[in-house]
Amino acid sequence: MLYRNSPRRRATAAAAAGILVTGLALAPAAPAQASHHPRAQDEAVRSGDARFEVLSPTLIRTEYQKDGRFTDAATFNAIGRDDFPRTRFTKHVDHGWLTIDTGAMTVRYKVGSGAFTADNLTVRLAAGKQTVQGQPWAGHTAPACAFGALCEAESLQLSGPGVATDHRGFTGRGFAAGFASSGDSVTFALDAPEGGTKQLSVRYANSTGGDGQNVDRTLSVQVDGDAGHTLTLPPTANWDTWGLATVPVDLAAGRHEIRVVRGPTDSGNVNVDSLAVVNPGDPFPAPTPPQPQPLRFGTLAEAETGALTGGARPANDHNGASGTGFLAGLESTSSADALTVTDVPSAGDYQVQIRYANGQAGAQPSQPRTMSVTAGTAAPVTATLPPTSGWDYWNTVSVPVHLERGTNSVTLGCPTDASCNVNVDTVAVTSKGSPLLAPHAPLGGYRRGLDGVTGSALTAPGMLYQDGWYLLDDSASALSTTKPRPAAEQDGYVFAYGQDFTRGLKDLSTLTGPTKLLPKWAYGVWYSEYYDRTAAEFQDLVARAKAEGVPMDVLVLDTDIKAPDKWNGWSIDPTRIPDPKAFFDWAQKQGLHTGINIHPSILGSDPKFAQAQATAKGKLQRVGCNGGTDCYAFDFGDPDQLKAYLQLHDGMIPKGSKGPDFWWLDWCCDNTKSSLAGVTADAWINQQYADKTGFAFSRAYGSLQAGGYSSPTPVATGPWADKRTTLHFTGDTTSDWSTLQMEVGYTPGESAATGLAAVSHDIGGHTGGLKEPGSEPGSTKLPDDLYARWVQFGTFQPIDRLHSNHSDRLPWQYGPEANASAKKFLNLREKLQPYTYAAAKEATRTGTPIVRSMYLAYPHEQAAYATAGSQYLYGPDYLVAPVTTPGTTATTSVWFPPGNSWTDIFTGKTYRGGTTQNITTTLDAMPVFKKH
After folding, report:
1. Is residue 706 scored above 60 in pLDDT?
2. pLDDT at residue 504 above 70?
């Protein structure tokens, strides 16, 4: 049976007027079309205590609830289930399996098998020419730990703690790090062979924490959800030293779920390496060394599961790999990875597929590398591995080999000590002419903040995977009303978009709500330097910008304008801005939109504290913060405290003035929190700001805070609500070339992973890095070339926000070449504003972001994945490859996708698609190309 879908007209992201800017043609945008088709609950497919809703040909909801109390209401994440057109599908039961087929995906469930697991529910789909079968619920339920055996904590179900490797002495591939917040946990299942009192032993490290204390710490151990027993963890000598702690657990014979969790009264802040359930008094089991795993012909295998020698080792310190990591350490002729290939159908010629990353190795230039591939006793074959655009970006090549029937050995090695220096993710052996196999590897990723990041940062995977499927686990989300679900259940959405990644983003947008469309002015030029200025100084700066021909749409007032405390005061300091009404009226007359930086706390000595505490009905808690010990925080989940918090904003607005256009919640949440179960504090307060002023300018992805400050580890609530409300402030980055280079791939990667289109970096970086004496007292400046190139980069970002910590960001503060370049590109940004706004409207309408990873448009091209860290599409029409190397002249490698020609908007030179070219630019230009 064929499925049907309502056609939707897609608008092109182009300007509302036909402006010609240095060869950049902008055409009018087409209007959007809307569609709404209510979904009847009686269309759902029931199988015992499991329920399935076909939302689109590429999206099926899967629910399991042992009492059949399914969630029909919208959740805080999933608000748009009724907005999908009806989809026709077939269903049947055969040999005990329920099969649902939409024509684009097939979901199979073993009837009567209970809750969803890796084994009883599968999805099948096509990703290009590859047929993919996935196990959506794998990793979303507690894995089994055998009685009497050591289990590595990093391989169990983690909620909150991250997997880390930054201390010595751990076993396995890392350890569970942090337990920094209440609710952080590691969970596993155990089959007890007999009833009685057993012993849980935990290998841990506990040294001086971020709170400066070196004391006994505690966690709680819960069996099948009971109240739990306290596990006491005495200090260890340092973070590289591991101790053992034990606690008795009473178990009946049979299966149990055991959770080691930081409870509300626990202190946490420890690392856990491994654990075991044993008989009382038994020694802690020794770790089992990993054994090489065979590679079955025609399938993908993780490269690190082969037999590793000569320094070859597993690693997990880069993004974009499948499984738990990748193979590193191929750095000399003695290093090798031997794989045993089974089930070769007959003697003959085959191909070995290698997915690898080849970034810049130390001070060496980026360059092609070679790898030897040896099948059995045959002579080695050389695989040439072109550079990728960083260590987080991957490419796949294939080389021919001759194999015998049955079982063969295939060894990857280095022809010379200088040849390899690559990381390998997966290996496959297939027939000649078979398609390159895509692994279940994340494309892009998200992170709560880039604070202190220099050059690279681990991110949390989002919804796009290279083999085309994903499970959005919504089980932990509250209802959209913030009320709890009627009962605990498994509730997950199986996406099966194949290589149509934009279709996946469209489904995500419909299910979880579209990305926020900001006011048109927000896509202009922002000035946001953290520097203590008075009203008169702001006015002089704006007048100078006009005289210099520097456009300015948004003026941000940073934290120094507040009183009585610059961090968390709730009045405008009269010594900085004596007449706030006159100031905001002046800004409005200048065509400026304004914002104020605030923090979610208040001092007890603040004149407005008494009223805030009265509105909160005495519930504000004195917890200490950046302002000192006499500092009170808010519970955003409590209506009285939320009201008190929002009233403080209203009190800052001068009478007779509309005040600022938005509030910049610089850091959420210190000790401020939300007590709403199933809704993270950031997501909840960002919604309040969006309701108040149209959008939140804030951190996104508060779900990551559970693992600590800037942790890359997600929890189950995920990032899906944030995009509906939030312009994401990515935080305080380091001002150097490596961070600029990292941001090139970060913006499109985050947008693709989460669907959030509005990402705002500090253009120029925030602090540290490369600094020179600045033009104002106490200020610094960037090197001229870095400043010019960062401004160029900002011109083609969702938000162009010049920001820093006491560091010059205005063109006239730099030398003649950098000054001229910055003015040129800031004016180009202004002329691009209609185009950018149209691209933002398209992002809201279709889910395809403003800044687009190359693979969104060219999913069948391996180069689209390999170059995703160095170039991207800006809207549908422009290829942008920012310069990220020093010098007044730089050469940038650019891949031009096939099927089109590409014209340089500055020189007018046209390049043929399907080629890679070196583009040289001085500071007055950058590689930007119009598609034809």
Report:
1. no
2. yes
Question: pLDDT digits over 747-789, tens only?
Answer: 999 999 999 999 999 999 998 999 999 999 999 999 999 999 9
Q: Residues 116-171: pLDDT tens digits?
A: 999 999 999 999 999 999 999 998 888 999 999 999 999 998 887 878 888 999 99
Contact assessment for residue 644 and residue 637, using Cβ atoms and an 8 Å cutoff: no
Burial class (CB in 10 A: 0-12, 13-18, 19+), 285: middle
Mean pLDDT for the chain overall: 92
> Contact at 8 Å (CB) between 310 and 336?
yes
**Distances 49 to 301, 323, 327 between C-alpha atoms, Å:** 35, 31, 42
Is pLDDT at 24 greater than 60 in this prediction? Answer: no
Helices (H) and strands (E) counted in the chain, each on its own, are 11, 58
Q: What's the CA dihedral at 346, 348, 349, 355 to 10 degrees?
A: 30
* Total residues belonging to the chain: 932
- Element at 233 (helix H, strand E): strand 229-233
Asked whether the beta carbons of 515 and 545 are under 8 A apart, the reply is no
Are 164 and 317 in contact, with CB atoms under 8 Å apart? no
Q: Which of 141, 101, 88, 87 is nearest to 117 (CA)?
A: 141
Instruction: Please give the average per-residue pLDDT across 182-199, as a whole number.
Output: 93
Residue 400, both tokens: 């021919």
Burial class of residue 524 in the structure, from the number of CB atoms within 10 Å of its CB (0-12 exposed, 13-18 middle, 19+ buried): buried
d(CA 505, CA 721): 14
Distance separating alpha carbons of residues 475 and 75, to the nearest angstrom: 10
Q: Judge whether 730 and 850 are in contact, CB under 8 Å.
A: no
In sequence order, which residues have a C-beta less than 8 Å from that of residue 628 and are 6 or more positions away?
603
Other C-beta atoms within 10 Å of 366: how many? Answer: 15
pTM of the model: 0.92
Cα gap 469→52, rounded to integer Å: 17
Q: What are φ and ψ of residue 866, in 5° steps?
A: -70, -30
Region 11-21: mean pLDDT is: 34
Contacts (Cβ under 8 Å, ≥6 apart) of 433: none
Amino acid residing at 92: H
Tokens of 263: 């409870």
The Cβ-side half-sphere exposure at 870, using a 13 Å CA radius, reads 28
User: The tokens of 62 are what?
Assistant: 């899967």
Identify the CA nearest to 744 among candidates 176, 733, 142, 754.
733
- The Cα 121–Cα 285 span in angstroms is 33
The CB density around residue 885, as the number of other CB atoms within 10 Å, is 13
Closest of 718, 281, 170, 274 to residue 475, by C-alpha: 718
834-865 pLDDT per residue, tens? 999 999 999 999 999 999 999 999 999 999 99
Mean pLDDT in residue range 503-531: 98
**Quick one: tokens of 271?**
């690392």
Q: Which residue has the tokens 């220096």?
A: 421
100 — alpha (psi -120 to 50), left (phi > 0) or beta? Answer: beta
